[in-house]
Design goal:
By secondary structure, the chain is an alpha/beta fold. 36% of the residues lie in helices and 21% in strands. It is built from 5 helices and 5 strands. A 5-stranded parallel β-sheet has the order 2-1-3-4-5, sandwiched between helices. Helix 1 packs across helix 5. The relative contact order is 0.18.
């Protein structure tokens, strides 16, 4: 049986947050531990969490701290060494190489799926990818 990855999703767009929740949930590969509108909510959750997520999926463009700042802070904090970070954006032309110093090997920069219908397959592909490409630190 497939072990579900524990995930937290951060996006300041309520529609995108809903689409991601539905896609990750319907994939059957993730247990959603929290949905947050920004970095401040994520930080408050992590400070009080009794169990850390395996994965934080965050939008690149958010009010306050952006997704790269979230990734950088999580990657720099030894208390969160086990958390993988996926930064998503609708922007085209950007990739991991553009953000190398912040990503530090346990994070990825990916394009968001084009539609709600694509989130389930995106979630399945991401699960496979994180259990391969990002499983070593």
């Amino acid at each position: 049986m497939l072990e579900k990855a524990k995930i937290v999703i951060v996006d300041n767009d309520p529609d995108e947050l809903y689409f991601m929740e539905q896609g990750f949930e319907s994939s059957g590969r993730f247990e959603i531990m929290g949905l947050f509108a920004g970095a401040e909510e994520l930080n408050a959750y992590l400070l009080n969490a009794t169990e850390l997520p395996d994965l934080v999926v965050t939008d690149l463009n958010m009010d306050g701290k952006n997704g790269m700042q979230v990734a950088g802070e999580l990657n720099a904090n030894p208390d969160y060494a086990t958390i993988k970070v996926i930064v998503l954006s609708i922007a085209s032309g950007e990739n991991d190489a553009d953000f190398g110093p912040l990503l530090k090997g346990k994070s990825l920069f990916l394009s968001k799926p084009a539609s709600l219908l694509d989130y389930k397959s995106f979630a399945c592909d991401l699960y496979d990818r994180i259990h391969g490409n990002l499983s070593t630190r």
